């Protein structure tokens, strides 16, 4: 499978990966077990500190693992592993070791116990900083505490869910810098 | 400018437009004034009822208009009006009537006072159903109470923000239905 040479990436800038709205893979670890889930409902909530809000359904096997470990890694997959992303979302960690089943490589993270997924374009190490909205909205508020991303390509071919089994693949890049006020170019 | 022939669209299915993560235009009305803002931080929070969470910065002119009127319309623009979307995000409703300035057509909504933007692909009429997270997170939780969208094209050329003045334009559509369990095809 494709792999990317990554460097440390400034956490305040990771909105670049989340704001366009890709499907992501969330990896977690708890009491010697690890798991992966596919997630489509998330948003940037702040860039410094770097906050991401995520909806995690309470029926997912990852729900309790993340709630109890208070950590996860948000991994950004690209179109080359699209079928794997779908298959991960269509089985449960209760039945399957997803790293083994889908031949994905767990890598040691620096600030959390959850593993990075080597085959993903970028990896965001996250700590749960607010669990008060989990009960009402299944909303986990994470702070990205460490990020890993390659220098090239700058704009990856992410996949974005339309529902009903259809995805949009990231298309061309449009430079509209000249229409921005300088102070808005963040 | 391009326009779309729209029909009523089931509100439980509007995640099709929001989940892929496009930049949206939020229109509002309060005390005889109307405004438009460009917004990139949002997420699906539930599909029935149809809930969308949105980050609205308290320095935006729209912030108080939406907080006080408890309503807005989330409009989905496409790449043909990309420069307009950026310009709307780089000026303030304090100084400019954005509908007039950018030659956009306000249309009467059915369930809210905020206007639809005719030139956008889809229009989601929203009511603020939870204001308790505004102070801490600038997070508005809206329920979509009425939606308007065309039958064609089914997958619009939305734009997705990468930061620094660059956007991703929605690319090709990928059909991965065969890898889904039937009950997951929503």
- Note the overall shape of chain A: globular
Query: What is the domain tally of chain A?
Result: 1
CATH superfamily of chain A: Electron Transport, Fmn-binding Protein, Chain A
Question: How would you state the average pLDDT of chain A, rounded?
Answer: 96
Greatest interface: A-B, 56 and 56 residues
Q: Please give the count of helices of chain A.
A: 5
**Helix content range of the residues of chain A, please?**
10-25%
Tell me the number of strands of chain A.
12
Largest sheet properties of chain A: 8 strands, antiparallel
Overview features:
8-stranded antiparallel sheet, two-stranded antiparallel sheet, alpha+beta, 186 residues
């Amino acid at each position: 499978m494709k792999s990317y040479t990554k460097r440390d990436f400034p956490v305040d800038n990771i909105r670049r990966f989340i704001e366009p709205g890709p499907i992501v893979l969330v990896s977690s670890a708890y009491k010697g077990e690890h798991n992966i889930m596919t997630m489509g409902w998330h948003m940037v909530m702040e860039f410094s500190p770097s906050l991401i809000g995520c909806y995690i359904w309470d029926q997912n096997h990852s729900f309790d693992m993340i709630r109890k470990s208070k950590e996860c890694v948000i991994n950004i997959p690209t179109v080359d592993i699209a079928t794997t992303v779908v298959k991960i979302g269509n089985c449960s960690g209760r039945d399957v070791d997803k790293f083994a089943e889908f031949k994905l490589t767990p890598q040691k993270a620096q600030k959390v116990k959850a593993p990075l997924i080597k085959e993903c374009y970028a990896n965001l190490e996250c700590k749960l900083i607010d669990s008060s909205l989990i009960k009402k909205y299944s909303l986990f508020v994470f702070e990205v505490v460490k990020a890993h991303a390659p220098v090239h390509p700058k704009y990856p071919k992410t996949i974005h869910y339309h529902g009903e089994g259809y995805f949009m693949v990231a298309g061309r890049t449009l430079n509209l810098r000249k229409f921005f006020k300088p102070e808005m170019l963040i």
